[in-house]
Amino acid sequence: MEELLLSRWQFGITTIYHFLFVPLTLGLSLIVAILETIYVRTGNEMYKQQTKFWGKLFLINFAMGVVTGIVQEFHFGMNWSEYARFMGDIFGAPLAMEALTAFYLESVFIGLWIFGWERIPKMLHAVSIWIVALATNLSAFWILTANSFMQSPVGYVINNGRAEMTDFVALITNPYVFYQFPHTVLSGLVTAGFFVLAISAYHLLRKTHLDFFRASFKLGLVWTTVSLFLLMGSGHAQTQFMAKAQPMKLAAAEALWETANPAPFAIAAVIDEQNKTNTVELKIPAMLSLLANNDPNTAVKGIKDIEKEYIAKYGPGNYVPPVTPVFWSFRIMVAAGSVMMLVVLAAGFFWWRGQLEAKTCVLKAVLWSLPLPYIANSTGWYVTEGGRQPWIVFGLQKVDQAVSPSVGAISIWISLIGFTLVYALLAAAAVYLVQKFVRQGPVSTPVNTNKPAAKGATLWT
After folding, report:
1. Host H or E run for residue 8
2. How confident is residue 95, by pLDDT bands cut at 50, 70 and 90?
3. 255 and 171: one domain?
4. What is the pLDDT of residues 306-319, one digit of tens each?
5. Predicted local confidence at residue 328, as pLDDT
6. In contact, 75 and 14? CB cutoff 8 Å
7. d(CA 459, CA 346)
8. Beta-strand pair 391-393/277-284
9. Looking at the structure, do residues 147 and 285 belong to the same domain, yes or no?
10. DSSP character for 295?
C-alpha cells in the first residue's frame, strides 16, 4: 500500500506540473499564429512585434511542457509496469502517432519559426507557426485518445491477460474523446486568453506601451469571451455524456448517495463517506435532473445503487471514488469558471463604453484572475481522474493492480523527491523568465540606418 500511494503521488505531482503548461501552449500557439497572419496580410509592424512578444512567452512555456511531458512516459515503466504490460498494445499506438504526426512536426517547424525571421519568406514563416499550433493541438488529441480508452474502453479484446487492440478506428472515434478533446482545447484557449488579458492589464495599469497592449487586450477580450461561452457549452455536453458513460463519476461529483427522481443539485454539503450520507446539504431541487437529462422530472442514479450494479458485474469490492475531493473539485472548477466569466463581461462592458483604463479596479480584477484558469484546469482533471477510481482502465484494471510489484518504497521516495525538486527549480526558472519579459515589455531598438523603416512603421522587439 505504501508503494501504491507513493507511486500515485509521484505521477500526480508530475501530471500537475505538466498540465500547468499544456493548456497555455494549446491556446497561445494559435494566438501567435493569428497575430503573425494579421502581420503578413496587413504589413503592420506592430503585429509583427506582437507576434514576437507573445511568441517569446509561448516558447518558454512550450519548452517546459516538453520537459515535463517526456518524464511522464517513463513512469509507466518505473512505477506502473503492470499497467504497461496490460495496456501497452493499446496505449502505445496513440503515443506513437503523437510522435509521428505531432511531435516531429512541432520540433521541425518551431525551429524554422525561431530561426527563420528575415531569412525565409513571410508567408512561409507564418505557415511554420500555424503548423506548430495545429501539431500541438493534434498532440492533445492523441493523448486524449489514450486517456479516453481508460475512461471508456472500445475496440479491444482481452488475450492472455492483456488488452489487445482489434479496431484502431474504434479507438480514435471513441465517443468519449469527442467530448473530452474539445473541452480540453477550449480550456487551453481560455487559459491563453486570460494570460494575454492579465499581462495587458498589467501594462495598462502601469501606463506603459499603451498602444501595444490596448491592441493585445482587445484581442484577448474577444478571444476569451467567445472561448468561455464555448467552454461552458462543451462542459455541459460532457457532463450529460458522463451521466450515461460513467454514472458513478457523476454521482460522486454530486455526492448523490441515493437514486433520486427528480435529483437535486448540491451547492455545498458536509459529506460522511464512512456512513455514505450527507449530514448537511444546500441544494437546488430537480436541478441535477435538468442538467443531466434536460428534463427536471427524470431520475439520476445514486452511488449506492450503482455500486450494487458494479459488484454484480465485476465482483466484490469497493467501487466508490473519493467522494469528498471529487465533489469539491467540481465546485471549485465551476466557481473559477463563473468568476472568470464575470470578470470578462465586466471588462468587456467598460471597454465597450471606452472607460476601461479609467476603471483600475476592473483591470486589477483581470490581472489577479490569472490563476483562475489554472485552478479550473487542475480541479477539472482531478474530477476526470479521481472520479474514475478505483479503476485505472474502467472495468478492466484497478489502480492497485497496475503498480510495479518489484519497486520498493525507498526507490520511489528517492525519485519522488528528486523529480519534485527538479520540477520546482524548472518551474521557478520559467516563472522568473516570464515575469522578466513581461515586466520588460516590448523593447524598442535602434533603427538600421542602412535600411529605412517603412513609413508609419513602429519598431519593436
Report:
1. helix 2-42
2. confident
3. no
4. 999 899 988 888 88
5. 92
6. yes
7. 33
8. unpaired
9. no
10. -
Report how many domains make up the chain.
Answer: 2
Q: Using the Cα atoms of residue 289, residue 182, residue 9 and residue 394 in order, give the sign of their dihedral.
A: positive
Strands 162-165 and 277-284: unpaired
Within a domain: 460: no
Strands (E) located in 248-341: 265-272, 277-284
- Whether 223 and 291 map to the same domain: the answer is no
> Which one-letter amino acid corresponds to residue 305?
D
User: Do 36 and 165 belong together in one domain?
Assistant: yes
- State yes or no: pLDDT of 445 exceeds 80: no
Helices (H), 116-167: 122-151
Is the domain of 299 the same as that of 217?
A: no
Q: Is residue 455 part of a domain?
A: no
CB neighbours (10 Å) of residue 258? 14
106 and 64 co-located in one domain: yes
- Distance of alpha carbon 203 from alpha carbon 440, whole angstroms: 10
CA 277, CA 269: separation in Å to the nearest integer?
A: 10
Domain ranges, residue 223: 2-244+324-440
Within this chain, do residues 235 and 335 fall inside the same structural domain, yes or no? yes
Tell which residue, 173, 114, 129, 185, has the closest CA to residue 149. Answer: 173
446 falls within a domain: no
Could you give phi then psi for residue 454, rounded to 5 degrees?
-65, 155
Question: Can you tell me the distance from the alpha carbon of 285 to that of 458, in angstroms, rounded to the nearest whole number?
Answer: 59
Q: Are residues 272 and 407 in the same domain?
A: no
Contact 166/157 with Cβ under 8 angstroms? yes
In the predicted structure, residue 210 carries a pLDDT above the cut 70: yes
Specify if 448 maps to a domain: no
Q: Which three cell numbers stand for residue 117?
A: 525571421
